[in-house]
UniProtKB/TrEMBL annotation:
<dbReference type="Pfam" id="PF00072">
    <property type="entry name" value="Response_reg"/>
</dbReference>
<dbReference type="InterPro" id="IPR000673">
    <property type="entry name" value="Sig_transdc_resp-reg_Me-estase"/>
</dbReference>
<protein>
    <recommendedName>
        <fullName>Protein-glutamate methylesterase/protein-glutamine glutaminase</fullName>
        <ecNumber>3.1.1.61</ecNumber>
        <ecNumber>3.5.1.44</ecNumber>
    </recommendedName>
</protein>
<dbReference type="InterPro" id="IPR011006">
    <property type="entry name" value="CheY-like_superfamily"/>
</dbReference>
<feature type="domain" description="Response regulatory">
    <location>
        <begin position="4"/>
        <end position="121"/>
    </location>
</feature>
<dbReference type="GO" id="GO:0000156">
    <property type="term" value="F:phosphorelay response regulator activity"/>
</dbReference>
<keyword id="KW-0963">Cytoplasm</keyword>
<dbReference type="GO" id="GO:0050568">
    <property type="term" value="F:protein-glutamine glutaminase activity"/>
</dbReference>
<dbReference type="GO" id="GO:0008984">
    <property type="term" value="F:protein-glutamate methylesterase activity"/>
</dbReference>
<feature type="active site">
    <location>
        <position position="165"/>
    </location>
</feature>
<feature type="active site">
    <location>
        <position position="191"/>
    </location>
</feature>
<feature type="domain" description="CheB-type methylesterase">
    <location>
        <begin position="153"/>
        <end position="345"/>
    </location>
</feature>
<keyword id="KW-0597">Phosphoprotein</keyword>
<feature type="active site">
    <location>
        <position position="287"/>
    </location>
</feature>
<comment type="function">
    <text>Involved in chemotaxis. Part of a chemotaxis signal transduction system that modulates chemotaxis in response to various stimuli. Catalyzes the demethylation of specific methylglutamate residues introduced into the chemoreceptors (methyl-accepting chemotaxis proteins or MCP) by CheR. Also mediates the irreversible deamidation of specific glutamine residues to glutamic acid.</text>
</comment>
<feature type="modified residue" description="4-aspartylphosphate">
    <location>
        <position position="55"/>
    </location>
</feature>
<dbReference type="Pfam" id="PF01339">
    <property type="entry name" value="CheB_methylest"/>
</dbReference>
Length: 351
């Protein structure tokens, strides 16, 4: 049965472009196109869509207000339509916090050509969103900052590595909220376009007790610091004397992505081995699975998020099927697992 899609956007051009893209995919069915939230409300009642595309800036009621009301009253998978601006990226991140599954970035120039160029990706995201689990509301205690650990974790040797895609913004945040400021240095790759990664890193820096920022070429990996791969750049890790440093480059996409989790994981497997503790979180596709396998084969400890807590159980499923994950855990237990492994390996118990 085709996935029923409702478009909500005040731009007649965007509505027309999305209509054309959806109608050319036999697995999608367009059930309506609304110029504002009030028309959308009536169409939702009439058609019960499987997934909704939603603009942020709309007349009468903005997209974030509508999304908040929708998730409280009639939870439905939502794909945000976002502008590549600082304001647009902040609004998009807020939408993901409110429960949106994913987003599509509007091209800066040549909107018609740009949207058509990403037609395949747009359709794939619509189908994935329709099948996704809506993010679960977390109890306040689950996202609060943890108490300081009595066991020392400060180490320039150990590295935490995290990879994610669809649903990953909130999943990564939950893991980082569970880490104390003396945790090992952490590197993160998330499938996110340029213009969004800096806003996301800044947001995490404010919300967690760690120092989080978008990585720059040559940055050292330091305890209590998190480096996020910039949009459109692969991030690798290299050993430099007693230090680990990140290297950024724009070589070809891997698994259809740049940055790719496999690029980061494979580089870590080569240079860090037993010093690694890696987690692969929610996401569409297979990126990161083989890299996680390489880390496990190199002696690092590996964790995959379980199906029940994933928004999209794609990347972790691939890792589990490969035998790449030593542990398969619900999201709320992953931070504790990383810390436990850091303490064990730090005291000489190799995993």
């Amino acid at each position: 049965m085709a996935v029923k899609v409702l478009i909500v956007d005040d731009s007649a051009l965007i509505r027309s472009l999305l209509k054309d893209i959806i109608q050319h995919d036999p697995e999608l069915q367009l059930v309506g196109a609304a110029p504002d939230a009030f028309v959308a409300r009536d169409l939702i009642k009439q058609h019960s869509p499987d997934v909704i595309t939603l603009d942020v800036e709309m007349p009468r009621m903005d997209g974030l207000t509508f999304l908040d009301k929708l998730m409280k009253g009639r939870p439905t998978p939502v794909l945000m339509i976002s502008s590549l601006t600082e304001k647009g990226s902040e609004a998009t991140l807020r939408a993901l916090e409110l429960g949106a599954i994913d987003f599509i970035a509007k091209p800066r120039l040549g909107i018609a050509e740009g949207m058509q160029a990403y037609a395949e990706e747009i359709c794939a995201k619509l189908k994935a969103a329709a099948r996704a689990r809506l993010p679960r509301a977390r109890p306040a205690a689950a996202t609060g900052a943890p108490a300081m650990s009595s066991a020392p974790l400060l180490s320039t040797e150990k590295i935490f590595a995290i990879g994610a895609s669809t649903g990953g913004t909130e999943a990564i945040k939950e893991v980082l909220l569970g880490l104390p400021p003396d945790c090992p240095g952490t590197v993160v790759t998330l499938h996110m376009p340029p213009g969004f990664t800096k806003s996301y890193a800044d947001r995490l820096d404010r919300q967690t007790r760690l120092s989080v920022r978008e990585a720059r070429d040559g940055d050292r990996i330091l305890p209590g610091h998190v480096l996020l791969a910039p949009g459109d750049y692969h991030m690798e890790v290299q050993r430099s004397g007693a230090n680990y440093v990140v290297r950024l480059h724009r070589e070809a996409a891997v698994n259809g992505h740049r940055p790719a989790v496999d690029v980061m994981f494979n580089s870590l497997a080569r240079c860090a081995g037993r010093n690694l503790i890696a987690a692969l979180l929610t996401g569409m596709g297979k990126d990161g699975a083989r890299g996680l396998q390489a880390i496990r084969q190199a002696g690092g400890h590996t964790v995959a998020q379980d199906e029940a807590t994933c928004v999209v159980y794609g990347m972790p499923r691939e890792a589990v099927e490969l035998g790449a994950a030593k542990e398969v855990l619900p999201l709320e237990r992953i931070a504790d697992s990383l810390l436990q492994q850091a303490r064990q390996s730090g005291s000489g118990n190799r995993v």
